[in-house]
Amino acid sequence: MNTETQYRPSLTFYHPNNRGTGGAISMELHPAHEATSGSIMLSAANQLSVGNKTQGGRDYARFDWKGKIVVKLDFNDLSKMLQVFRGEMESLADGKGLYHNSPSSSTRIVLRHLLEPMNGYSFELYRTLKTGEEMNFHIFFNASEALGITEAISGSMAVIAFGIPKIIPHDTSKYREMVKEVSDAPQS
User: Fold this and answer.
1) CATH superfamily of the 10-179 domain
2) pLDDT by residue (tens digit) across 97-154?
3) What's the CA gap between 33 and 166, in Å, rounded?
4) Closest to 159 in 3D by CA, of 28, 70, 1, 43
5) Phi and psi dihedrals of 5, rounded to 5?
6) Which of 54, 154, 174, 177 is 20 to 30 Å from 6 at the Cα level?
7) DSSP bridge pairs for 43
8) CA-to-CA distance for 9 and 113, rounded, in angstroms?
9) pTM
10) Positive/negative CA dihedral, 68, 69, 75, 81
11) Domain boundaries along the sequence of the chain
């Protein structure tokens, strides 16, 4: 298998704003394989700069992908998120969020349905590093985006739970590297 020509598609949302407080997320599906559970690796980046239009073209907003927050959303996390997106619950864990702890940090994942000032979904990440440094991220999904995310996650659940049949070769090295980074490496 030639891994140089293969890529892992991702679902990415960019939400810049004129205040420079926007955000972007990227989600990559990682099927279950061997003794490893499947997941969606979610990377969240805060907006670094405001885009602007010039006579010669357009400068687009930039996002802090270097300082991103990465979380591994497993089957249980995604099932709970689907309950919020489908209207079965108003928020994750009654507003408390989901907690992920690693040797280097503690992360709280918050997803809640909002009706005011607009109908949609607020997604927030709060990470506290063992050094005491805090990072946070926020993005708002309108109802159409939430529907698309719901369908994407729903369609992914079978391969997250059971993997891809062995007749389809796939490279898992990038996934293993990302999981090791999130689980073991110190966050800075």
Assistant:
1) Transcriptional Coactivator Pc4; Chain A (2.30.31.10)
2) 999 999 999 999 999 999 888 899 999 999 999 999 999 999 999 999 999 999 999 9
3) 9
4) 28
5) -95, -5
6) 154
7) 26, 70
8) 27
9) 0.80
10) negative
11) 10-179
